Amino acid sequence: MLRIALLVMLVFVLPPVIAQAPQLNGKTELSLHGGFDYQGPNGDKIDLEVGYGWYLRDDLLVGGEFQWALLEDISSKGGDYRSQQASMVAVMLFIGDSELVPYAGLELGFRNSKFEDLDESGLIAGGRVGARYFLTESVSIDGSLSWLLADKEVFIVDFEAEDQYLYPSIGINAVF
């Protein structure tokens, strides 16, 4: 019984004691994300996002992202949906004494979408919340939810053009 109590205590007490907040100031980050879309039409989907950024402080990341998406054969005419998006992002990390680091960010960019007769481009802006789990000091797993607004209807949701979009994403980040 004493061994079990000691083991339980070590499992819950030791990780916070040995956890180290990541030292990020002055480092750069490369990220690769893939999105999944519960709102969109069904089809063969490829959705990739690549980002590169700089840590101005341990808790402040600024950078750029490029996203490319393709949904094949989703309309009755056999058409595809394609989009490209380039954005500047700023992310504030709420670093504590754990490997799990929540964050909030802002995004400003440009998006082009093509679907059937639609060929639309527009400015986008939005917010993002998420969390990173640092596997090591230089590698983290990232999950986020972005809410994007556009000045034109550049998002396709359930076969309809929309000017806003809720986008969940999961990915991996490398800090060097």
Give the spatial strand order of the biggest sheet.
1-2-3-4-5-6-7-10
By CATH, the architecture is named Beta Barrel
Q: Please indicate the count of domains.
A: 1
- CATH fold-type name: Porin
Cα shape: elongated
Helix percent reads under 10%
Average pLDDT rating: 84
Helix vs. strand class: mainly beta
Strand content: over 45%
Put simply, the count of helices is 1
Q: What's the CATH class label? A: Mainly Beta
Poorly predicted residue ranges:
5-19
**What is the chain-wise order of helices and strands?**
HEEEEEEEEEE
Ends distance = 45 Å
In short:
This protein has one helix at residues 2-18; strands at residues 28-35, 44-57, 60-72, 81-93, 100-115, 118-134, 139-150, 155-157, 160-162, 164-175. With 176 residues, the protein is mainly β.
Layout of strands and helices, then pairs:
Layout: H1 2-18, E1 28-35, E2 44-57, E3 60-72, E4 81-93, E5 100-115, E6 118-134, E7 139-150, E8 155-157, E9 160-162, E10 164-175
Antiparallel strand pairs: 1-2, 1-10, 2-3, 3-4, 4-5, 5-6, 6-7, 7-10, 8-9
